[in-house]
Amino acid sequence: SDRNNGSDGKLTGRLAGVGAAALAIILASTVVYGRVIIEIRAVAPQNFWPMAAPIIAMLIASSLVALLAFPLAKRDPVELPEQDNPAELKPALIFAAMYAVVMVLAAAGNHYFKETGVFVVAAISGLTDMDAITLSNARLAEEGSLSVKLAAQSILVASIANMVFKTGIAGVIGGKRLLLAVGSLMGLQALAAAAILVFWPYQKVDGWLDKIPAEITAAESADGKGNGDDQKNGAEASSDEAGEQPPAEPNTAPGEPGAARGREGDNASGPAGRRPADPAREPPAQAPAADPK
To answer: What is the pTM of this model?
Structure first.
């Protein structure tokens, strides 16, 4: 029987903790978008905002849907089972192999089948994992092999496929009641993803986001120019206050060689060492006497 009363009157079996299980699944689906945003930032920093903007919108929508699952968890409290170590080597190797395969398939699908091939690969890859398709398509978009719009749309397609897969697994393992709880919440998330996929104004948002770096750069340049002018004005004010000191004359005694050279330099002029005559003091030149003859 799926429903048995224990000695303490609590539900046991498949029906125990359905609300808590549904909340955990929805929260896991919501946190995925935060991880996707971080991966886009790491792999495609030049195209981060255009590619991450629809994912951020999906994160907000999924968070709102997750709030609806909290009342369900309060009705069916349950203790969490023991978790496995997430840092084992085997899952890391499996993910590395999956990432390599998905990247090759995504590039081949874009080359041979254009948008349709990219969406097919994203849907297949997103069934079990969204990290591989996110990293591969974000890298292809950063390299210019894939458009930024198509990369963002493929991530949304992968997320919808991932929701469908998780809902099916919840029904197979958790039973009909968990299927209804998870399916209704996942359905809302899938509708939000489909709406963003179809109606997201990529061109308008991209144009608005392109203005942000330019405005930031202009503001930083204006601040830097203002700081430079302030420093220049401060330096000029300090120079005016300090004033310019005349060069000090050498303190040399009359008997020292330097003084002798100075006197010689004052008195000497030309090879003979005589002071040049002052034209104002010289008598005017007399005209030669006339010849008496």
So the answer is: 0.61
